Amino acid sequence: MFEGVTGKKISDKKLYPVAAVVIFVFVFIGITAFYLDITQPINL
After folding, report:
1. What is the largest CA-CA distance in the chain?
2. How far apart are CA 41 and CA 8, in angstroms?
3. Which of 13, 20, 26, 34 has the fewest CB atoms lying closer than 10 Å?
4. What angle is formed at CA 27 by the lines to CA 1 and CA 15, rounded to 5 degrees?
5. Can you tell me the distance from the alpha carbon of 31 to that of 28, in angstroms, rounded to the nearest whole number?
6. Reduced to 3 states, what is the DSSP secondary structure of residue 11?
7. Distance in angstroms (rounded) separating the CA atoms of residues 31 and 37
């Protein structure tokens, strides 16, 4: 995607930190949602 915008080739090693941050954010949101579901369930 980034290559299509800029036309430059990016090495995979530069993308590892970005991928790690994205994965961490999704895991954090998942754990937070699971925790809140147990401690403060939503009453519909």
Report:
1. 50
2. 48
3. 13
4. 30
5. 5
6. coil
7. 10
Q: In this predicted model, what pLDDT tens digit does every residue of 1-44 receive, in sequence order?
A: 666 667 777 787 888 888 999 999 999 999 999 999 999 887 77
pLDDT at 14: 82
Please tell me what DSSP assigns to residue 41.
-
What is the distance between the alpha carbons of residues 15 and 2, in angstroms, rounded to a whole number? 11
Tell me the whole-structure pTM to 2 decimals: 0.62
Tokens 């970005």 locate to 18
> What is the Cα–Cα distance from 40 to 42, expressed in whole angstroms?
6
Residues 6+ apart with CB under 8 A from 10: 2, 3
